[in-house]
Amino acid sequence: MCFKYKNNQLYCENTLVRDIVYKENTPLFIYSRKAIINNYNKLKKAFSKLSTLICYSVKCNSNIYVLKLLSKEGAGFDIVSGGELFRVIRAGSKTANVVYAGVGKSTKEIIYALNHGILMFTVESESELERINAMAQKLNTTANVAVRVNPDVDPKTHRYITTGKKETKFGLDIKRAKAAYQWAMMLPCVKPIGVHMHIGSQILSAKPYAEAIDKMAPLINELKDMGVPLEYFDIGGGIGIVYKDENPVSPEEFGELLVPRLKPLGLKIIIEPGRYIVGNAGILVTKVEYIKQSGDKTFVIVDAAMNDLIRPSLYTAYHDIIPLKKSKNRSKKILDIVGPICESGDFLAKDREITMPDEGDFLAVKSAGAYSFSMASNYNSRVRPAETLVSGGSYQIIRRRETWDDLLKQESVSVREYVL
Ligand SMILES: *Cc1c(COP(=O)(O)O)cnc(C)c1O
Q: Do 66 and 206 sit in the same domain of this protein?
C-alpha cells in the first residue's frame, strides 16, 4: 500500500505526511497518485481477456484532477448527473466513453448528455425511456440506451448501499426489463445497445456478481433472439475495500470467477468501479484540539467533522484511525473521536480502542479517498478541506482549502424582491 510507516512516521509514497500537514494545515485530504493508478490497472488486467471498458464512478471522488489522471490511463466514466458530465468534459475526457445512470435524470440533463454524444444512458424506468426518446427526436438524433435491470440478489452489504434487491428504487425487475426492451425497439429515437446492472457497494465477494450474471444471461440471450442490437453488458461497480479487517475479493479472483461467465455472452463488458479505485488511495488528516473526560467516557475532539467525512455518521461506517507519529510507552484507551459540529451524530469513531493521543497530535483517518470529500458540506459554516495529491516525493494541491469568503459567494446581503 502507498501509506506506510518508516521510522514510526507515516509516509504517503515517499513523502512524509507531516511535512505536507505543516504546510497545508488540517483537516486535509491526501491522495496517492500511484495507488489510484495501480488499482485501475490491476482491475483492467484482470479483465484483459475480454473487451472491457472501465468506467470510473465519478461520484465517489469527483475532483477534476483525479478524473484527468484516470482519463489519461484510458478510463471512461460512470456519471449520475449533468454536473458530473460537466466535470468529465472540463477534465478533457472523451464523452464517447461516458455511461449515465440515475433514477431521476431531468430534461435539461438528458439534452446536455445527448448534445455531448455519451456512450449510453442506463435507463431506470419506462417513463424515462419515453422522455429520452422524445428529447432525442427533438434534437434529431438517436440515444443509445441500456436498461438497468435489478436482478434481485443480496450483495450482503449495508442496506443504504444495496441497490440490486427488488425492494430498492433502482432499475427494473427482469420481467419488466424485457417489456422495456420491447418498448425501446418500437421507439424511433432510442437504440438499446446495452444491458446494465449495479447491485450495490462495498461488496466483498464476487459471488453475488456471479449469481446476478447467471440470472441475467438468459435475459441477454432472449433479447438477442428478439433482435435487440446489444453490444455492451455493464456489470456495474461495487467492489469492496478494506476499512477494518475485511477480506475483499482481489481483482484477480474477481476476474477469474466472472470472465468465464461473461465470455460466452459475446458482449463488450463495462465495469463501473468507484470505491475500489480511490477508497484506499486517500486519508483525511486531522489535529487533536482537546481531550476531555465526561462521565466515564473520554472524548478526543479533533478539527475534522461530519461535514468533512460523513460516512461514520451516515452509515456508522468504520474508518481506521492512526497517528502520524507512532510513539512507544503510550497506553491504549477506549475513546470517542468527535468533531466540533453541534450534533451528537458528529463522530469519526465511537468506543474505539486506540493509543491515547495528546492534544496537538495529528491523526490520519484511513480509507478516505472515496465518498469522503465528494460528500463534504459546509454545515456549521465550516470551510471544506483542501485536497492534495502525492506523487513520489512531492505533492500538489488539487483543490485549495475554502475560505470564509467562499461560504458567502452565492448569498446576498441586499435582497431584491420579486413581485409576482
Ligand atoms: C455509485 C455507483 C457506482 C460505483 O459504486 P462503488 O461501490 O463506488 O464501486 C457504479 N455504478 C453506479 C450506477 C453507481 O450508482
A: yes
Q: Which whole number is the average pLDDT over 123-129? A: 94
CATH number, domain containing residue 67: 3.20.20.10
| Contact 102 CB / ligand 1 (< 6 Å) | no
pLDDT band, residue 158 (cuts 50/70/90): confident
Q: Counting Cβ atoms within 10 Å, is residue 33 exposed (0-12), middle (13-18) or buried (19+)?
A: buried
Expressed in angstroms and rounded, the spacing between residue 30 Cα and the centre of ligand 1 is 22
Measured in angstroms, how far is the CA atom of residue 400 from the centroid of ligand 1? 26
pLDDT of residue 414: 82
Pocket flag, ligand 1, residue 238 (CB < 6 Å):
yes
Per the listing, cell 470529500 goes with 373
Q: What is the pLDDT of residue 160?
A: 67
* Cell numbers placing 369: 479517498
Strand pairing of 76-79 and 98-100? parallel
Q: Is 374 left (phi over 0), alpha (psi -120 to 50) or beta?
A: alpha
Does the beta carbon of 59 lie inside 6 Å of ligand 1? yes
CA of 296 to the centre of ligand 1 (A): 41
Please report the atom of ligand 1 found closest to the CA of residue 203: 7
Residues 256, 307 within the same domain: no
Joined grid coordinates for residue 253: 479472483
What CATH number corresponds to the domain at position 350?
A: 2.40.37.10
Q: Is the CB of 282 under 6 A from ligand 1?
A: no
pLDDT at position 161 = 66
